[in-house]
Amino acid sequence: MTFDRLDLVSKLYQPSGWPRILEAASGAPSGGPLVVDLDPTTFCDLACPECISGKLLNQGRFTPERLAELAHELVEMSVRGVVLIGGGEPLAHRGTRTVLRVLGEAGIAIGVVTNGTLIKQNLAELAEYASWVRISVDAGTSETYRLFRPDRKGNSVFDKVIGNMRLLAEAKKGALGYSFLVMTRREPDGTIVSNHHEVLQAAELAHDIGCDYFETKAMFDDGHHVVQVAPEILASVEEQLRAAARWEDDSFEIVNSSTLTSLRSRVGPVQEKDYHRCRVAELRTLVTPSGVYVCSYHRGNDGAKIGDAVTDSLAEIWRNSDRGIVDPSRDCRFHCARHRSNLELEKIGAGTAAPEPGSDYDPFI
Questions:
Q1: How far apart are alpha carbons 155 and 161 in whole angstroms?
Q2: For residue 174, which of 334, 55, 355, 5 has the smallest C-alpha distance?
Q3: Any idea where the Radical SAM core domain is (predicted)?
Q4: Segments in the chain below pLDDT 50
Q5: Geometric angle at alpha carbon 112, from 106 and 212, rounded to 5°
Q6: What pLDDT is stored for residue 1 in this prediction?
Q7: What is the Cα–Cα distance from 53 to 41, expressed in whole angstroms?
Q8: Is 120:164 a contact under the CB 8 Å cutoff?
Q9: Which of 218, 222, 235, 358 has the most CB atoms within 10 Å of its CB?
Q10: Nearest to 358 by CA among 4, 8, 15
Q11: In angstroms, rounded to a whole number, what is the distance separating the alpha carbons of residues 91 and 45?
């Protein structure tokens, strides 16, 4: 890999986004977001017990016509990157293929977070236009997949997902990632089930499929706080990741998320913040069928809702909304991946940062 995809602070200094970075750093409203998270739908074909969006699922979707309009509005707003995510399963919407094509042909970078069950139906557009596709697998075998990512009938579609990933690996122009969320669950009878023992097996499978990276993450609770795990589980994960490093080369990377770093440091569920305005909220936003929110951490939170993209244009929402309705010191006490970016933006605004001249390499700040 030629860059650290998780180094969000360095990404602030890319030339094409710099004018809006300066707007946000000043504490003033920006002319528009650089990156938009877009939920095409709240529907999902899986029934994962630990789904953090479980309470928000199956509550609506954009019409295909409105979804296509949103894609054109994003182009008109000069958005640099769009992440198709959820909420629900983004590839479950029949209009997602149009979004991929409209954004891709306009030169906008596209990320896709998916469960992988519907890759085949969207293969041509994903292969041609997606900058990266990250598959939430969270297992290395079909049986463990069934425990944590069952379909609505309680069955495992693991083999289907892996087969779809192989198809995309052969055809893709962008990057393909295998995501592994370390999960532990206490069953009603008191027994503990976990997927942590399959990290190494999953990493080997990711390498075999032809993925570009394998990412390990920690669970969040409903309040987006990182869920700590027993020391022996963390030690096991660490040992497996060290063993998985044998497959790393120029075409395959083991990625450690910020949540895994939080587990290692045992910092606890609360991340204190002493600033009252999220400057990153001027650079990123979340668009869903139920509303437009200041960020994905606040999906479904009416206190962080800034508009309704079903009825209003994104440009109008941005022009008329106050992204300062969320106070990070009060409302964002969880571990935010962009906390360090906010601190850096404060430095940029104060003139105490020392930006290094750079080039555009990854718009997903």
A1: 13
A2: 5
A3: 30-264
A4: 1-2
A5: 105
A6: 41
A7: 12
A8: yes
A9: 218
A10: 15
A11: 10
Which residue's structure tokens are 């089930």?
193
Compute CA 70 distance to the chain's CA centroid, rounded to the nearest angstrom: 19
User: What would the pLDDT profile of 351-365 be if each residue is shown by its tens digit?
Assistant: 999 777 689 999 999
Q: Are the CB atoms for 12 and 348 separated by under 8 Å?
A: yes
What pLDDT is attached to residue 3? 60
> What CA–CA distance (Å, rounded) separates 35 from 85?
13
CATH number of the domain located at residue range(s) 32-269+279-326 in this protein = 3.20.20.70
185's tokens: 């669950």
Copy the structure tokens of residue 167.
């198809």
- Three-state SS string over the chain comes to CCCCCCCHHHHCCCHHHHHHHHHHHCCCCCCCCCEEEECCECCCCECCCCCCCHHHCCCCECCHHHHHHHHHHHHHCCCCEEEECCCCCHHHCCCHHHHHHHHHHCCCEEEEEECCCCCHHHHHHHHHHCCEEEEECCCCCHHHHHHHCCECCCCCCHHHHHHHHHHHHHHCCCEEEEEEEECEEECCCCCEEECHHHHHHHHHHHHHHCCCEEEEEECECCCCCECCCCHHHHHHHHHHHHHHHHHCECCEEEEECHHHHHHHHCCCCCCCCCCCCCHHHHCEEEEECCEEECCHHHCCCHHHEEECCCCCCHHHHHHHCCHHHCCHHHHCCCCCCCHHHHHHHHHHHHCCCCCCCCCCCCCCC
Residue 68 corresponds to which tokens in the numbers above? 């296509």
Q: Give exposure, 237-246, as e/b (b: 16+ Cβ within 10 Å).
A: bbebbeebee
Alpha-carbon span 296 to 277, nearest angstrom:
16
Cβ-based burial of 64 (10 A; exposed 0-12, middle 13-18, buried ≥19): middle
